[in-house]
UniProtKB/TrEMBL annotation:
<keyword id="KW-1015">Disulfide bond</keyword>
<dbReference type="GO" id="GO:0005509">
    <property type="term" value="F:calcium ion binding"/>
</dbReference>
<feature type="active site">
    <location>
        <position position="370"/>
    </location>
</feature>
<keyword id="KW-0479">Metal-binding</keyword>
<dbReference type="GO" id="GO:0005975">
    <property type="term" value="P:carbohydrate metabolic process"/>
</dbReference>
<feature type="transmembrane region" description="Helical">
    <location>
        <begin position="37"/>
        <end position="57"/>
    </location>
</feature>
<dbReference type="InterPro" id="IPR050749">
    <property type="entry name" value="Glycosyl_Hydrolase_47"/>
</dbReference>
<keyword id="KW-0812">Transmembrane</keyword>
<feature type="binding site">
    <location>
        <position position="590"/>
    </location>
    <ligand>
        <name>Ca(2+)</name>
    </ligand>
</feature>
<comment type="function">
    <text>Involved in the maturation of Asn-linked oligosaccharides. Progressively trim alpha-1,2-linked mannose residues from Man(9)GlcNAc(2) to produce Man(5)GlcNAc(2).</text>
</comment>
<dbReference type="GO" id="GO:0000139">
    <property type="term" value="C:Golgi membrane"/>
</dbReference>
<dbReference type="GO" id="GO:0005783">
    <property type="term" value="C:endoplasmic reticulum"/>
</dbReference>
<dbReference type="Pfam" id="PF01532">
    <property type="entry name" value="Glyco_hydro_47"/>
</dbReference>
<dbReference type="InterPro" id="IPR001382">
    <property type="entry name" value="Glyco_hydro_47"/>
</dbReference>
<keyword id="KW-0175">Coiled coil</keyword>
<keyword id="KW-0326">Glycosidase</keyword>
<keyword id="KW-0472">Membrane</keyword>
Length: 612
């Protein structure tokens, strides 16, 4: 039997059913061919839609709910270890299966109740006239506008500034050291004056072209115009540079405007945390609140060094405002990380904010990971050493780093490699050189009386980073350097030979000077300062160089903002007395903005819930 054709054939006819006159009104026995074709298209589209949707249905078996004590989060299951009763299933709540089932049932009941409530509200709305509905919408709009006005005009609570120690002074007794400090001060003035003249309102300055580079939100802050700006910004950079800088300016000056601006800006970052896991997006639009991640970051993951470098600033925001929302945001991140499995005890650099899964297994103490570890330690220090949870996380992480990432080269140089897909890459970045200072800063309070060990480890890292400077033509360090066979502490690829006025090596020199007073650190710092003055100074400021191994370097024509905030600041402190910003009273954020240790005994904030 042949299949009837779907399209008309030439000469095809349908014979009449009855030649006599009909006894009833005529109805077509079949559809027209064009109607058949349209019906077929609709049917095909429907089948395709249903079939395609099948592949987009979520696999609920791969998601388990868990409670952080702050808010509910969905994360994927974690496979049980070998020997588990139910391989492939891991209850985040722990072994209490009964509690897990009760939690799921409670959640289902809540969803049903919310659904029924929404249906009732919808029915109620449908009973109303169009004019009544419009009036209700307008009333709600007016209410929201009024609440926003009240919130914007509401003054912050009067919070006393903690007793601040060492915000001035630091004059060295030695005349030679005083002279060097004055030179650093002159370099700062040269950099700042040119930025103010040619780059005001921009992130950086082009000192050769004498114009601004990379516009930022600084002018928006000053003009009280944040809510009108449709600007997408980095949550991480805005936090460490702007919020950190404004908080430091407030503490050092006592001027309320800096605190107010810090809080207004922080409120604009909060929508970035609206993700299924509470891990913030990397970018957020200041006007719409829409967030996103960098496309290159392991399939749109959030970056460890970005979402892990918010704690200091957000804790101070809650401290100054009494609003616990900032505290809850960063503590939620910490609780989530504590519950996650870590390969070899190491934190991968990427975490997907939608699923809660780690991205690519890449661990680094340099770029993408660095300041996460720094902020674990500094959370403990900033809390007057009472945040033992942060200290434990730091100690655990450092032990894993020392076991898997820290090695000694054939030439005796200690370096920190990068763990990529199960093997160690013997390369160290300039950014990782900050770790020498971190190890020294965290030596006191380390486990099993290993203070001397970590102080020595910090000194070894400082020596390695100094060698990376000393083995170049300009006596300035490359962006990264390798330890491969006969090559040690030297950049191999052309793309790694540049120096962009980075501060990490100077930062480590300063910390080690503070803890040891070994004169070599001041000597090494001065060598770096002279090299910067000789090869990076131009008429319009200071510029990075493209090749530190060339005796005739080419400038990149960018004066980075961290050159003023960090590099020159650490050099100034290196040649100052220890009574200037003493480390038992101040903690520096990752952009070198000093924030006071929260000595609760030295405040009158007993009524502030954030302090409690």
């Amino acid at each position: 039997m042949t299949t009837p054709a779907l399209l008309p054939l030439s000469g095809r006819r349908i014979p009449p059913l009855n030649l006599g006159p009909p006894s009833f009104p005529h109805h077509r026995a079949t559809l027209r061919l064009s109607e058949k074709f349209i019906l077929l298209l609709i049917l095909s589209a429907f089948i395709t839609l249903c079939f395609g949707a099948f592949f987009f249905l979520p696999d609920s078996s791969k998601h388990k709910r868990f409670d952080l004590g702050l808010e509910d989060v969905l994360i994927p299951h974690v496979d049980a270890g070998k020997g588990a009763k139910n391989p492939g299933v891991f209850l985040i709540h722990g072994p209490d299966e009964h509690r897990h089932r009760e939690e799921e049932e409670r959640l289902r009941n809540k969803i049903r109740a919310d659904h029924e409530k929404a249906l009732e509200e919808a029915k109620e709305k449908l009973r109303k006239s169009r004019e009544e509905i419009r009036a209700e919408i307008q009333t709600e709009k007016n209410k929201v506008v009024q609440e926003m006005k009240i919130k914007e005009n509401k003054p912050l609570p009067p919070v006393p500034i903690p007793n601040l120690v060492g915000i001035s002074g630091g004059d060295p007794e030695d005349s030679d050291i005083r002279e060097k400090r004055e030179k650093i001060k002159e370099m700062m003035k040269h950099a700042w004056d040119n930025y103010r003249t040619y780059g005001w309102g921009h992130n950086e300055l082009r000192p050769i072209a004498r114009k601004g580079h990379s516009p930022n939100i600084f002018v928006f802050l000053w003009n009280y115009n944040l809510k009108k700006q449709n600007s997408e910004v980095s949550v991480f950079e805005v936090n460490i540079r702007f919020i950190g800088g404004l908080l430091a300016a407030y503490y050092l000056s006592g001027e309320e405007i800096f605190k107010i601006k810090a809080v207004q800006l922080a409120e604009k970052l909060l929508p970035a945390f609206n993700t299924p896991t509470g891990i913030p997006w990397a970018m957020v639009n200041l006007k719409s609140g829409v967030g996103r991640n960098w496309g290159w970051a392991s399939a749109g993951s959030s970056i460890l060094a970005e979402f892990g470098t918010l704690h200091m600033e957000f804790m101070h925001l809650s401290y100054l405002t009494g609003d616990l929302i900032y505290y809850k945001k960063v503590m939620h991140i910490r609780k989530l990380l504590q519950k996650m499995d870590r390969p070899n005890g190491l934190y991968p650099n990427y975490l997907n904010p939608r699923t809660g899964r780690w991205g690519q297994y890449h661990t680094s103490v340099g770029g993408l990971g660095d300041s996460f570890y720094e902020y674990l330690l500094k959370a403990w220090l900033m809390s007057d050493k009472t945040d033992h949870e942060a200290r434990k996380m730091y100690d655990d992480a450092i032990e894993a780093i020392e076991k898997h990432l820290i090695k000694k080269s054939r030439g005796g140089l200690v370096f920190i490699g990068e763990w990529k897909n199960g093997h160690l890459e013997k390369k160290m970045g300039h950014l990782a050189c900050f770790a020498g200072g971190m190890f020294a800063l965290g030596a006191d309070g380390s486990r099993t009386d290993k203070a001397g060990h970590y102080l020595e480890l910090g000194a070894e890292i400082a020596r390695t980073c100094h060698e990376s400077y000393d083995r170049t033509a300009l006596k300035l360090g490359p962006e990264s350097f390798k330890f491969d066979g006969a090559v040690e502490a030297v950049a191999v690829r052309q793309a790694e030979k540049y120096y962009i006025l980075r501060p990490e090596v100077i930062e480590t020199y300063w910390y080690l000077w503070r803890f040891t007073h070994d004169p070599r650190y001041r000597q090494w710092g001065w060598e770096a300062a002279l090299a910067i003055e000789k090869y990076c100074r131009v008429s319009g400021g200071f510029s990075g160089v493209k090749d530190v191994y060339s005796s005739t370097p080419t400038h990149d024509d960018v004066q980075q903002s961290f050159f003023l905030a960090e590099t020159l600041k650490y050099l100034y402190l290196l040649f100052s007395g220890d009574d200037l910003l003493p480390l038992d009273h101040w903690v520096f954020n990752t952009e070198a903005h000093p924030l006071p240790v929260l000595h609760l005994a030295n405040t009158t904030l007993s009524g502030n819930p954030a302090v409690r």
